[in-house]
């Protein structure tokens, strides 16, 4: 990928910008000890209360085993709870733990994103 020159300075390529943002996002999540992908899972569950594991995997474009490992890690950190559906014990329902309705990521201004 070639950078574009603007005002005598080489601008970052799209890939470089994405990697830079990913690094900044990762650093901002360090205090709560979650990865960017785990933060995405938390945000999905926050927006879709009682989400089914398969629905979350589809929406986040993750394979079910990948999401399952992520949910296990979030459950160990006490961010997420999972339970079996009463109607169909093959279905796993995800929810945030104990009133955790805030976003796991706050902007620097303190507003919840």
Quick structural summary:
By secondary structure, this protein is α+β, with helices and mostly antiparallel strands. It is 42% helix and 14% strand.
In round numbers, the mean pLDDT is: 84
Q: Number of DSSP helices?
A: 4
Helix-strand topology string: EEHHEHHEE
Rg over alpha carbons: 18 Å
Name of the CATH superfamily: Winged helix-like DNA-binding domain superfamily/Winged helix DNA-binding domain
End-to-end distance, in Å?
A: 32 Å
- For the biggest β-sheet, the strand order reads 3-5-4
Uncertain spans, ≥5 residues at pLDDT below 50? 103-113
| Count of spatially separate domains | 1
CATH T-level fold name: Arc Repressor Mutant, subunit A
Instruction: Give the fraction of residues assigned to helices.
Output: 40-55%
Percent of sequence in beta strands: 5-15%
Helix and strand content put the structural class at alpha+beta
The description of the largest β-sheet is: 3 strands, antiparallel
Shape: elongated
How many strands in all?
5
Describe this protein's structure.
With 113 residues, this protein is of the alpha+beta class. The protein has one domain (10-96): Arc Repressor Mutant, subunit A (Orthogonal Bundle), CATH 1.10.10.10. The protein contains 4 helices and 5 strands; from the N terminus they run E-E-H-H-E-H-H-E-E. The strands form 2 sheets. A 3-stranded antiparallel sheet has the order 3-5-4. A two-stranded antiparallel ribbon has the order 1-2. Strand 4 (80-84) and strand 5 form a beta hairpin. Helix 3 crosses helix 4. The two termini are 32 Å apart. 14% of the residues are buried. Residues 103-113 have low confidence and may be disordered.
């Amino acid at each position: 990928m070639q950078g574009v020159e603007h005002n005598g300075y080489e601008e970052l390529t799209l890939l470089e910008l994405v990697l830079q943002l990913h690094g900044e996002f990762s650093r901002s999540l360090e205090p709560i000890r979650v990865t960017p992908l785990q933060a995405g899972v938390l945000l999905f569950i926050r927006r879709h209360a009682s989400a089914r594991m398969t629905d979350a995997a589809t929406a986040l474009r993750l394979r079910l085993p990948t999401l399952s490992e992520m949910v296990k890690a979030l459950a160990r950190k006490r961010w997420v709870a999972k339970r079996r559906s009463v109607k169909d014990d093959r279905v796993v329902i995800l929810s945030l733990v104990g009133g955790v309705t805030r976003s796991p990521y706050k902007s620097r201004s303190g507003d919840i994103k």
